[in-house]
Amino acid sequence: MGREMAKPKGVQSRQDAHKIPNDQTRTAMAEARSLFARRAGHMTAAPKESRMAIESLPAFTKPARQRWESIPAAVRQRLLSNVWCAHCRHETTITNFSGTIKQDDLLLVGKCAECHGDVARVIEGA
Question: Of 8, 12, 97, 114, whose CB has the highest number of CB atoms within 10 Å?
Answer without folding.
Answer: 97
